[in-house]
Specification:
This protein is mostly helical. It is built from nine helices and no strands.
C-alpha cells in the first residue's frame, strides 16, 4: 500500500512538473514573439533583411508548393468525382475541390511544407549561431539578436504564407480540373461555374487568416527552438541543434493542426 502511494505521488509530481514546464515554455515563447514582432519596425535596416528572408522562405518554396498542390488537387478531384458520381452530383466537383482547398488543405499543407523546408533551416541556422557563441557576439557588438535574427524572418513569414497559400489553392484547383475534366470527362464550364458560385469571400478570407496565424506560429516556434538550443536538457553541442530542429518541426506541425481546429471553430 505504501509503495502504491509512492508511485501515485511520483506520478502526480511528474505531471505537475510537466504542466509547469509547459506553462513556462508557452509564456516564454509568447514573450519571445512579442519582442521579436516589436523590433520589426525599429530601423530601416530591417528592410533588406526582410527581402532576403522573403526570397528564402517564399521564392525558394514555390517548387515544392507547386508539386504538392498539383497532386493534392488531382487526388481530391479523383476521389471527389467518384464519390459524387455515385449520387449523380459530379457537377459539383468544382465546388468540392475549391472549398476543400481554400478552407482547409491549402493553408494547412502549405504551412507544413514550409515548416519542413524553411522552418527547419531557421532552427538549425540560429541553433548553430547559438552554440558557436555568435549570438553572444551580437550582444557584445550592441546588436539585439532578436531584432537581427528573428524579426526579419517573422515579417517575411507574414508576407509569404498567405501568398503561397493562394498559389497552392490555385494550382490545386487546376489539378482537380485536370483529373475531373480532362481525364474523367467532366464538363469544363460546369467545373469553373461551381467554383465561382460556391466559393465565397468569407471562405477566402478565412483561409488567409489561417495562413497568417500559421506563419506566426511556425516562425516563432522554429526560431525559439533554435535560439534556446543551448538550454536543452537532452543534448549539447551539434546534437542539440539536430534535436532542436526535430522538435521545432514536430511541434510546429502539431500546433498547425491544433490551431486549424480552433480557427475553424471560430471562423466557420
Amino acid at each position: 500500500m505504501i509503495e502504491v502511494r509512492r508511485v501515485q505521488l511520483s506520478l502526480i509530481a511528474r505531471l505537475g512538473d510537466a504542466a509547469l514546464r509547459f506553462v513556462g515554455e508557452t509564456g516564454a515563447m509568447f514573450l519571445f514573439f512579442l519582442e521579436s514582432a516589436g523590433r520589426i519596425f525599429m530601423s530601416w535596416g530591417q528592410f533588406h533583411k526582410i527581402v532576403r528572408q522573403v526570397y528564402f522562405i517564399g521564392v525558394k518554396s514555390i517548387s515544392v508548393i507547386t508539386l504538392i498542390s498539383l497532386f493534392t488537387g488531382m487526388v481530391i478531384g479523383l476521389q471527389m468525382y467518384y464519390a459524387l458520381a455515385k449520387f449523380g452530383a459530379d457537377g459539383f466537383l468544382g465546388a468540392a475541390v475549391s472549398l476543400s482547398l481554400v478552407r482547409e488543405l491549402g493553408p494547412v499543407l502549405t504551412a507544413i511544407m514550409i515548416t519542413g523546408r524553411a522552418g527547419s533551416s531557421m532552427t538549425a541556422e540560429i541553433g548553430v549561431m547559438r552554440i558557436s557563441e555568435q549570438v553572444d557576439a551580437l550582444r557584445v557588438m550592441d546588436i539585439n539578436p532578436l531584432g537581427y535574427l528573428v524579426s526579419p524572418k517573422l515579417a517575411a513569414s507574414v508576407i509569404c504564407f498567405p501568398i503561397l497559400t493562394a498559389f497552392f489553392d490555385l494550382v490545386g484547383m487546376l489539378g482537380g480540373y485536370l483529373t475531373g475534366v480532362l481525364l474523367l470527362g467532366g464538363n469544363s464550364g460546369v467545373y469553373w461555374y461551381r467554383v465561382s458560385a460556391y466559393l465565397k469571400m468569407s471562405d477566402i478570407s478565412g483561409g488567409f487568416i489561417k495562413s497568417l496565424v500559421f506563419g506566426l506560429v511556425v516562425c516563432t516556434v522554429c526560431c525559439y527552438m533554435g535560439y534556446f538550443t543551448h538550454l536543452r536538457r537532452d543534448s549539447v553541442g551539434p546534437e542539440a541543434v539536430s534535436q532542436a530542429t526535430t522538435s521545432a518541426v514536430v511541434t510546429s506541425c502539431v500546433l498547425i493542426l491544433v490551431t486549424d481546429y480552433l480557427l475553424t471553430s471560430l471562423l466557420f
